[in-house]
């Protein structure tokens, strides 16, 4: 369980997240909806430890994360697919997928097993494995970024605007992949941001709205 309390984050001396409090339970799929600049990416980056909080608390299973550096948080098995994907162009798709697990120090066998699971969830990746990370379309890059986040995201999976710019058919495939993932890992907590709530369809169990850095649960 991820518990956020009175989280305040400043960027360039501007308050970006304001007293954000939320509880994201295991086995839930949570939508975070807010317009451009509302603070969606900043919230996910704060949970990942990529931006420093000014004050507040982020706890995961009663462990306080707020002062834990990003590289230590890697052990927590949070997967993160940033909105700009960041697939490394000089590596193959397979190397891109293996990388976060290698950073965690997992064995080659563990990584291969995890990769098999990811390919069950996102079979579209299989024919792309040997391809260069620079040779992907926008939509293919989104599928690979999803796969890479699932490689390490065994407890919490955070997806930043995954449906933005995806063609309807690919959106449908993406949603089906998330459904397969939930079947394989029912306890996983999935957090998905979007600016357009319609793109989330019936995927989330719970929707929060973020507006100028304030987060509220929709009822
Ligand atoms: N590095 C930064 N320095 C200063 N301000 C920033 C920085 N990054 C983001 N901001 C500001 O913080 C606010 C929230 O940005 P954020 O990227 O979290 O929003 P978002 O909801 O993800 O928006 P989008 O839908 O466009 O992705 C915006 O006003 C943005 O201009
Ligand atoms: Mg964003």
Could you give a short description of this structure?
With 219 residues, the chain is of the alpha/beta class.
Largest sheet: 6 strands, mixed
CATH topology: Rossmann fold
* Alpha-carbon distance between the two ends: 20 Å
Share in helix: 25-40%
Question: How would you explain this protein's 3D organization?
Answer:
The chain has 219 residues and is α/β, with parallel strands linked by helices. It has a single domain, classed as Rossmann fold, CATH 3.40.50. Helices cover 32% and strands 27% of the residues. It has helices spanning 40-48, 70-73, 93-103, 108-121, 138-152, 168-184, and strands at residues 2-11, 14-24, 29-33, 55-60, 63-64, 78-81, 156-160, 189-194, 206-211, 214-217. The protein has a 6-stranded mixed β-sheet with strand order 6-7-8-3-9-10, sandwiched between helices. It has a 4-stranded antiparallel β-sheet with strand order 2-1-4-5, covered by helices on one side. α3 (93-103) runs parallel beside α5 (138-152) and α4 (108-121) crosses α5. The radius of gyration is 17 Å and the shape is globular. It starts with a strand and ends with a strand. Bound molecules: adenosine-5'-triphosphate and magnesium ion. Magnesium ion is lined by residues 40-41, 83, 160. Adenosine-5'-triphosphate binds next to β2 and α1. One of its GO terms (molecular function) is branched-chain amino acid transmembrane transporter activity.
């Amino acid at each position: 369980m991820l518990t956020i309390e009175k989280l305040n984050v400043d960027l360039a001396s501007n308050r970006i997240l304001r007293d954000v409090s939320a509880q994201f339970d295991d086995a839930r799929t949570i939508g975070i909806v807010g317009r451009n600049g509302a603070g969606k990416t900043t919230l996910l980056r704060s949970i990942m430890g990529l931006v420093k909080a000014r004050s507040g608390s982020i706890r995961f299973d009663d462990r306080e994360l707020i002062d834990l550096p990003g590289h230590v948080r890697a052990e927590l098995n949070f997967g993160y697919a940033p909105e700009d994907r960041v697939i490394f162009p000089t590596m193959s798709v397979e190397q891109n997928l293996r990388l976060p697990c290698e950073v965690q120090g997992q064995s080659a066998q563990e990584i291969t097993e995890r990769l098999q699971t990811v390919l069950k969830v996102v079979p579209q990746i299989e024919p792309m494995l040997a391809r260069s990370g620079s040779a992907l379309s926008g939509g293919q890059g989104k599928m690979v970024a999803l796969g890479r986040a699932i490689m390490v995201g065994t407890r919490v999976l955070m997806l930043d605007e995954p449906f933005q710019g995806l063609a309807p058919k690919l959106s449908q495939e993406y949603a089906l992949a998330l459904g397969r993932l939930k079947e394989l890992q029912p306890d996983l907590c999935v957090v998905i941001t979007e600016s357009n709530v319609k793109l989330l369809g019936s995927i989330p169990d719970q929707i929060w709205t973020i507006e100028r850095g304030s987060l509220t649960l929709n009822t």
